[in-house]
Design a protein that fits this description.
CATH topology of the largest domain: D-amino Acid Aminotransferase, Chain A, domain 1
Number of domains: 5
Strand content: 15-25%
Helix content: 25-40%
Number of strands: 25
CATH class of the largest domain: Alpha Beta
CATH superfamily of the largest domain: DNA ligase/mRNA capping enzyme
Radius of gyration: 27 Å
Structural class: alpha+beta
Largest sheet: 7 strands, antiparallel
CATH architecture of the largest domain: 2-Layer Sandwich
Distance between the termini: 79 Å
Shape: globular
Length: 611
Amino acid sequence: MADADIDQLVAQLEVYNTAYRNGRPQVEDAVYDRLVEKLRALDPGHPFLQAVEPETFAGRTEVRHPMAMLSTEKAYTVDQLARFVARVEKEAQAIGIQEVLYRVTPKLDGLAGRDDGTVFASRGNGLVGYDITNAFAKGVVALGGRGQGLGEIVVVQSYFQEYLADKFEHPRNMVVGIVSSDTLNKDAVQALEEGMVRFVPYSQLPHWQGDGRQLLQQIDAISDGLVAGCDYPLDGVVVEVVDARLKDRMGATTHHYRWQIAVKRKGETAVTQVENIQWQVGRTGNITPVLEVSPVPLSGATIRRVTAHHAGMVAKLMIGPGARIEIIRSGEVIPKLEKVLAPSQEVNLPQQCPACGQELVWEKDFLRCTHLACPAQTERRIVHWFRTLGNADWFGIKTVQKLVAAGYDTLEKIYTMQESDFAALGFGPVQSRNLAQALLISRTKPVEDWRFLAALGISYLGVGDSRKLLQHVPLEDLLSVEKAQIQRIHGFGEKTSERIVADLIVLKDTLRHLLALGFALEKSVPAAQATVVDSSIAGKNLVFTGKMLRGSRETMQEDARRLGANVQSAVSGTTDYLICGEKVGPTKLAKATQLGVQILSEEDYYQLLKG
């Protein structure tokens, strides 16, 4: 290959890497890795292969890492892993180590960083990163507490697939947006408030440990076991040497540590032809294309359906009947479109919602049905209600599908059901009793009014914004609220307020009916009263940490809010009290001490409340 062709390959890799680091990956990881290996075969000494792929966060303070955060060498086959083990064993013998132990952990696919308990820094170029500590103030949960060292910010995978996959092209896209943006969209805010965005230290990951012979013989089983037990976006597993002396002996290149390697399975690919496109409607109205393809064997399964993400992709890549496509399937991942080999001559995008017939609108790359009463959104909306309300089980998607198919397609109808009604639909006696009991519990077990409102699934009203809205407008008054009232509240713009009012008009009868059922709602403290509540913590900034003995931390946080306190997610210079339960990390205590924050035990806190 000519030098010009190599330069072109490197330029393409740089474009792909920049897009990935900015949270907007243009190709699958497997495609990028294949191009890197192609460059390595053509020019092993090329500078691109000798340095960490850089990332930047504009406007952030640079932070020098005490120890370089490097990339990871990769192995795609057992033979490549065996060569790594052979190198390690040779170095071990040279310094008298007879038995080498290896540690295997899942390889997270998120935003890497280092948390020393005071500063949280991104990887950057490996030597110098950027201060992104405010990610914790935004609501990123530090798994195991602050100061756990190296790890990655990730979104819980099951949550992303169910609630966010139709809004973000990749989980990393959402993570980068949270870290880099001052203004977060409602979906990111809700994910943060529900604790679904986490900094996961590598030390907190599940792991396997054993010798080189066991590693090579069992690598597939080891990988499968670790991946199955980890609900985060993953990209293979990481194998590393345990012995610190051996690590020092092996050292590092400018690109990666020699004592560590990532084992990645090349996603199997296949070529097939598109026969048809089915358009599915999600809970929020996004219309998602599913490609029906000529049956093709792939990774031990016969594939007939492939996801294509959004309508913008279908239009841009000219996907339609007759298009020849390459698809990829890695492990248990749902088959995805890898590339279009031959575009279709017939590309038809829906103009109306396939479920309700209403006109669709474009929102960025997505076609969306804005008709709140769309029947295809009904099932997901009912599931969302019970899931967000959070005080009663049993109403999963399968159960709700059965109810909707039988005509119980509104909350009003479902809340009229008795045990006999469930039994008449074919549910067993135990499940019928549990479902009826769950309905009763959902009405009688106390629940915050903002959670009740968020459960309705109104546009732009996640948990956080529902709480904010009800601090200014009581729940009952939402039946007649006007756009101008909402728009006057900080954080609610004209478009948002207009959409909320429009949805409330559609849901007015439902809301009135549910309120009449007498739910045990705990009312939000009005914003005007929150600062004058007669309590010793009114107006104070509080952080709760550790395992509490008298109740859950979440309950204590809500009680504090009702008493007029502002509950923070991380200790900062504005924090007044750090309330500590059991098993609090020393770094959090050290930071509170450094900033002059008053530290209270759980018992001290309750004494404070007594005045």
